[in-house]
Design goal:
Layout lengths: L5 E2 L5 E2 L31 E4 L2 E4 L10 H13 L10 E5 L5 E6 L31 H7 L10 E6 L3 H10 L3 E6 L6 H13 L2 E4 L29
Parallel strand pairs: 7-8, 8-9
Antiparallel strand pairs: 1-2, 3-4, 5-6, 5-7
Helix pairs in contact: 3-4
Bound molecules: zinc ion.
Catalytic activity: dCMP + H2O + H(+) = dUMP + NH4(+); 5-hydroxymethyl-dCMP + H2O + H(+) = 5-hydroxymethyl-dUMP + NH4(+)
GO molecular function, one term: dCMP deaminase activity
Family: Belongs to the cytidine and deoxycytidylate deaminase family.
Length: about 230
Amino acid sequence: MATENRQKSDGCIEDNGNSRDIMDTPNRKRRVGEVTENIATPEKKTCSSNGRRVDLNKKRSDYLEWDEYFMAVAFLSAQRSKDPSSQVGACIVNSEKKIVGIGYNGMPNGCSDDKLPWSRTAEDRLDTKYPYVCHAELNAILNKNSSDVKGCTMYVALFPCNECAKLVIQSGIREIVFMSDKYRHTPEMTASRRLLDLAGVKYTQFVPKRKQITINFDAINPTVTNPLASIASP
Ligand SMILES: [Zn+2]
């Protein structure tokens, strides 16, 4: 029919010049009497995301790469830690790029973290956190949701200490991707490298391309500051 407007394959309404009411979808057409026009022109199919303009007609280019993603999961997990001086997270990934274990440093299950010390130094070592706290690597391995972690890669914020190196080796993890090696010259880290080298566990420092990854809970909802976000559906 000559008076019908045709829906194009990209979801836009194609205008045939007819002047009747054609308010079928709010953002696509202006009403009768005015010159009808498509609102969703390619130029307007953009919106602001994290302060940047993006082209909604093209695949995103700033998505997280695998290493960034898994290291970010380790860092997010670290935010659960109650340790006032050191928050460390670990994320174990299998050969299919699936996460099979996450952990962060904290006191053992059932041991109230209000009744145990969090200090780094004290006259008596029993008044420091060290004899009690479980490292992120230990928790990630024990939290595994698969039968084992053989052949997996562990992403961890800090290079593992010697005790965690033992756990990594014995659990069959074959690779470590770490962020910081700030305790490199301590005996614990020296022993750790010695063990990992002997066992043939590969370890690589992660060098991030970006310094920050922001999680914005408001990003999923349209806001006043992002009016065009209400136009586009996912
Ligand atoms: Zn450790």
